[in-house]
Structures are given as C-alpha cells and as structure tokens.
Amino acid sequence: MAQTQYKSGRELSSTSLITWRIIQSAVWLIGFAIFFCLVFYPSLGITLLWDVLIPVAPLLLVLSVGVWRNVCPLATTNLLPRHLNLSKKKKMSVELQSKLGLVSVAALYLIVPLRHLLLNNNGMAAAWMLLIAVVIGVAMGFVYDWKSGWCSSLCPIHPVEKLYGGNTLITLPNAHCDSCVHCSIPCPDSTPNLHPKTAQKNSYQKISAVLLTGGFPGFVWGWFHVPDKTGFNSLSEVLQSYLLPFAAMLGTLLIYLVITTVFKAISERVVINVFAATAVSCYYWYRIPNLFGFGMYEHDGLLVNLRNVLPLWSITTITVVLTVFFFYWLVFRQPNKKSWVVRPSFS
User: What backbone torsions phi and psi does residue 87 show, to the nearest 5 degrees?
Assistant: First the structure.
C-alpha cells in the first residue's frame, strides 16, 4: 500500500503504518473475540460488549473520535474491499449520503431500545445484530469509495461521533485513507470542530441534525428509566421499552426548537454543545451507578457489585466530576480548530 501523505507535508512512515495496522488487527481480534463469546459464551460476551466496551465509548468519542475512527473493528472490516482494491469505488452523491445519514439517526433510535427488549440479555441476538452490520458495511464497501458507504453515512454510531466529537483533544494520522477522493462531503474525519449541523445542504441533513441534537439528551434519560426485559413477551413490554425514551426525546427536542427559534442570539455551536454535554453527562450519571450495583434496577447493566464495598457518595462524586468535566470540555473550553484525523493528500 502506498504511503499516506498529508496536507502538512508529512508522510505516515512505513513504521507508523505498520504500527497502526498492528493496533487495528489487535482491536479487530478483540472485536471478533467478543462476537465469538456472544455466540458460544453469551454471558461473558454480553458483559464484554455492554458492560466493558460500550461504557468506555462515549468518553473516547468526546476526547478523541480519531482513535475510534482509526481502529473500529467494523470499519477495519468494511474497508477491506477498498484496501484490497476490490471496491467499485463509486462516488456517493451528497443527496444519497444525506438520506443514509437520516437512516443512521433513525437506526440509532430504533436499535438502542432493543437492548432492553432483547440485546442486553441475549448473546445470540447481539451477535446477529453485529453480523448484520458487518454484512451491510462490507456490501457497501464493495460499491462505494472509502468511508462513504458505512463509516460516514449508515453507521448508527456516526451521529453520536458528530454530536460528542466537536472539540477533540488531538488530531491523529489517517490510518485508513491513503488519499482523499472526496468520498464524503464534508469529510467528517478532516473537518475541524465538526458537529451535527456542519452540513445543511438539504432537508435530510437538517432533519438529522435537529433530531439528533435536540432529541438525544431526552432519549438517553428515558432509556435509563426502562428495565431490561427477556424478549418480546407482550406488546406492553415493547411499548414500554420505546415509549419513555421517545417521549423524553420529544421533550428535549421541543426545548431545543424553542431555544433555537426564540433565542436566536445564542451561538448555534453553544446550544449544540450544551445538548451534547447534557446527553453524555446523563449517560454516565446513570451508567456508572449501574455498573457498580447502585442503579435503580438491581441487575441491569451490572459489571461488579460494590454496593457493600463503596459508599454511595463516592459514586455520586464520580458522576458529578464527570458532568463538570463534560460541560467544561464541550461548552466552556475554546474550540481548538482540530479535526479527528489529518486529511491525506488529494488523489
């Protein structure tokens, strides 16, 4: 593979490229191990996926989305056709990219409540979910160039990357793209201080941005107030799993629309970052107590029960500190004009 060259004139050396490939391979093997456990050792697989990997992800997205974009196992898989020169390298139109972006937001809101109904307690169901994502991602990779087919369009995690990653800590080398072919416009990886409303070219992008920014804080809050189920046992359980997250989502969405309509003097970026900080703070406000046995539902999301080991105030202190940190990092900290990764030279 050709060495990657960047706008700054620096090249990703062969040694650095090998290092990134080793890291990507190691993370891919970890991802495959989790998938293997979900199928054959479901209890362990569920713990590794939902109680170890996923709780770390929001913090990583806030600090350095570029790390995840470089090493995501699914990205490593669905970019193989492009790396192996097997992709048709079709250019995706802005309109199609925008439509798929809206689909990714809808998928995020539809899939996450399924955790309560099925995915949190059924390893095989979680494995099928991952396998379906892999198949779709690889199929798109065979058709569309670089990250346009999945990572920057259909991936349900990508909307959260844009919401949380607006003030990244560091810009990393691009460990996938060896040249820029304008596969995604704007490029989420190399656009400084990207946020959900960076692109407003059509109605699909506008709807996606509003639904994500305004609705996500309420959705997160509502999700944590629903207990885990054991499957689709009744219509009432299905409705319960979706009703409260969606109702709370509509609540914060209404607040967002009022603020952006009535208080137009407030900076758009500030409003977006306040909602982003609220969403990620809400996540850890409930997730950390759940992990250590202090949650409102005794066994939901439990990693290790420390209720008889740690005082409640210690957990509260951690959540308060994290909340203060997220609001400082996303709202009060000056934008540093950094992108997630460095744009490679144009093809």
Answer: -80, 150
